[in-house]
Input
Amino acid sequence: MNDNAPIFSARTKMSEIITDSSLLSIIERLNIKLGFGEASIDEICHRHGLSTELFLMICKVYSLENFKPEIAHLTRDDIPKLIGYLQRTHQYWTESFFPNLHSNIHTMLESCDETSKKMLNKFYDDYDEEIQKHLDYEENTVFPYILSLVNAEQKKTCEFRIRNFEENHSNIEEKLHDLKNIVIKYLPDSAPQQSRINVLNEIFKIENDLCKHSVIENKILIPLVSKYE
Amino acid sequence: MSNKKYRVTIIEPSEIVSAGLKYLIEYAGTFQVTKIFHNLQEFNELPSGNPNIIIVNPSVLSALGGENTKSLSTKDDTTIIAINYGAYDEENLRNYDGCIGIFNTKEQVEKKLQAALKISSDKEQDENSNELSLREREILTAVAKGKTNKEIADEFNLSIHTVISHRKNISHKLGINSIAGLTIYAVMNKLLDVEDF
Output
């Protein structure tokens, strides 16, 4: 565990934990409005109908390395909130992050030779499609299943189980890793340094976000849903 | 290539065959037969001479009830070649890095040993190098063309195990795992024409 990480508790002031952009994005994805004043985490969560336990857990996933979530104190009511969080994350990726990365890649390749341009663009488009497929699967199959389970609508005959989700949880990080190394190591000099750095910074950001997202899905969502199946 | 000769060990029951093989192998001056054993027991009990290549009659191994070529050497970079009297078809010799036929000419023997040796000579050269070896570049090109491990094994006369190990090394050196990413590398480094796929 990282010794420098802030120790959060329910009584910590909400304003004190917003120390970097990833924690800020949690606030945003959970629909928590800024302007906390001196209110504690507990008070703010209560105001937003959110369990303090879940909120602290998500924050710790992002700020403590190798943090292992313990879901014993989470309840059925936390599931829709967690899904809401994941959906907002997906929305941010598809509406803002990936279009932005795409346009940065486009700029980076502008002065490259046609072959590099064509290949890298195709590589990115394929990746984009893979990500989209993955997100669509979660949005259209996994999340509706979980929500109907929580609302006790799910018939026992339904063949889908949350463990199927684990099996289908394809590795969408591999190509990103490849893209990163291609930009660092192999792109021709005609790609301007600054635009390469912009692309790399974006990739570092999303790599971290994807990694934390998987922890939330695999270590919090899946075990929690399994409890109610 | 340096003046250094590659060390070859032969494990072959027939004295006529092993002596003939020694003559053919040493003819061009690239290889030197340092040890000849007539059975596996001798090979296991006596110093093997730390060979670069072991040429073995598959019957010596299958007498043990297996085709386990790995048992011959603890070193990954030892090249294992079969000497085939015609009793084995190529399919059964997949575990070997190469195969010499009883009717091969000395030129063919030389060529086959050289080709099989690339794996280990590259490895020697690669110990201090992060660059791809010649064999790795060839395999990368084949991967980028969409060939399967089995097709690559057939094309280069390697075992599938060896192909997989080459692919791991390639990905490790380049930091690229996906076939799409490897293809981009291959094209950018002119190993492949963009028209090829």
Q: What stands out?
A: Chain B has a mean pLDDT of 83. The two ends of chain B are 35 Å apart (CA to CA). Residues 134-196 of chain B form a domain with the Arc Repressor Mutant, subunit A fold (CATH 1.10.10.10). The interface with chain A takes residues 174-178, 180-181, 183-185, 187-189, 194 of chain B (CB under 8 Å).
